[in-house]
Amino acid sequence: MRAEKMWGWFLTLPSLIHTVIWIGIPVVVAIGMSFTDYDIVQAPTFAGLANYAEILRDEVFWKALGNNALMAAFGVPISMFIALIAAVALNQGLKGQGFFRTMIFMPHVTATVAIAMIWLWIYSGDPSGLANRALGFFGLAPQNWLTNGDLALPAVIVVTIWQGIGLKMLIYLAALQGVSKELYEAADVDGASTIQKFFNVTIPMLRPATFFVLVTSIIANFQTFDLVYNLTNGGPANATTVITYQIYVAAFQQFRMGYATAQSVILLLVLVVLTIISRRVVGGTDGD
Amino acid sequence: MLNRRQLLGAMGAAGIGIAATACSTGGGQPAPGATAAPTGELKGTVHIVTPEFAGTDGKEAFEGKILKAFTDKHPGVTFQVDYTPWDKLNEKLSTLVAGGQPSDLLMTGMGWTEPFAHKKVLTKLDKNAVLGDAKVLDALVKQGSFNGDMYAMPFLLESRPFAYRKDLFEKFQISTTEPKSMEEFNSLLEEVKSKSGLVPLDMLGQNLRQIWGQMIFAFGGTQFSPDGMSITFDQEPGVKALQWMVDLQNKGLSDFNFKVPTGQPSAYQQDKTLMAWGSSGAWPQWLKQTPQLTEEGKLGIMLMPTVNGSKVLYQGGTLVGLSTRSQNSAAATAVMQHLITPDALTQASLFSGKVPARSDLPPNPELAKNKLLDFSVDNLQYSVTDGGTPAWMEIRGKMDPELEAAVTGKKSVADTIASLKKIAEDAIGRIK
């Protein structure tokens, strides 16, 4: 038993070293730096809780947090639902399903900058933009999707949904293939309909996958940066700004590393709390 | 007053003295602690970060022509050039500094000198050694100075006069007489709108911070006190300037939604407006995308009048600074001296379309074709720019969202000014 434990530690060692060096130490340093005033050039000076006190008064930070919450609240459930439906549909052995799986997964492996370029064209305020052409087809007036403060955030959320479906679908597909066929056969014997089998067999059996997808999706939503950076730069008037963008601005545009790391620590705490809540709500198993 | 022909056309070497009274020259003693003129054989690698020479054409202009002329004279020096677009420059500089390996030479923008000098990123320069006998306007040298010492060498200027469609003005029977007052300028916009049915001016789709910066001067104010340690933009001119921008949007005289991604044809180029806040640096793009707009009969140029009867010409620009952590300051200083030479500066100006910082360049017919540049050189004495405080790098990034909120009606002018005041005072408070 002791030898087995030693062997286990030995196998874990590479991952452990990686985690300590590349995650553990930076996190500790970042937490320490969050209590300093550090402008990159001069040495950090201890600032106590000043950065955290400023965050409490920083309207833009809370606006960013609110935008992240909205992105997660709308983007995550919608993309999870679409991904689940797509996964179930593409798990039926349909003709050409490989092609459709690839197409749906493609946005996940496409560079976000390229995605942003495409959506900049789709969302062009010009009547020739694809979204405005679609509106024109229904006789509606063209919109300034990314410069209208009321439309910009929903427009960005649509892109995050579209971009996020692929990976979620892949995870659901893998989970679906692990669901025992005997359960469906037993449901058939009991006379269950397709919808009843979906809700009473498929959904419960996908609970671990759902928990995993939910947590990773929430985290991914709160880490959204490149899309906002390339689509809107957080504008107009901070309508689409997110926490990671604010961290970037503080660190690399304003040279306020201490303040930026304090924001990062707050983000870390938010994600820990949301993960705990997700676990309670979805009820992941011990093996998750 | 400087004259176009003095500066770009007929003056040449023989006419240098004509403009001398308006220009700064070398002379006097080097500032204490300033970098000295390089001596002896130069060697080693000089690392340069530049936002100015984008793409393969830019690389060819900078490394293939400008720097090659330097290495022809100093074969022991090699270059490592980091081409970074303007919108990523701040991030690039901060990561280089944070990584402990800043470039030897840093190209920065107007308003950046005070913050970078204050943070000791830039070395104090010996103005005489760097500029030599180059004629550079005192106002431009001041843009590269902090606490009276020069920390960055003016290189190129991006001037923004108003371009207008002379042919369409005539077609719609709109007067082409240059407005003499703010009222006349506003009336002109109204007239363009009523007669053409178009949004008159492509301005609010550009950088609101820079527009506000110009308009504060147009209304007779300033943004900061001379020492940069207190704000003045909350006074009447600043409020009026922002109200003017909000009115432009509300009256349909300019449109915030006319933003286009970098490099794409502007609303003016797309014939959506008859007037543009045109940049001399946009000239090469106009030549490629819409050359018809540069034709004599189609291009009119005017300046923004001010409340005190003068004019304003917004001036962005590119300055060259020497890093305090340069590993090869002798060669880097020699490169600065080379960059301000007539040949190098002409090449840089030809590529970028921007106004050369020195006023005694020999005539160059190609350079004279850039009519926005030509007009700007004629009117350099009206130059204004934004910034002027060591806290500018923090303040400038927070201005745009606030100004966007005002222009899009999400926030009142008074609330916006109050927010900006708090942002600026907090930032200045942190550097005191």
TrEMBL record, chain B:
Q: What single Pfam family name could you report for this chain, choosing any that match?
A: SBP_bac_1
Determine the domain of life of the protein's source. Answer: Bacteria
Task: State the protein's name.
Answer: Extracellular solute-binding protein
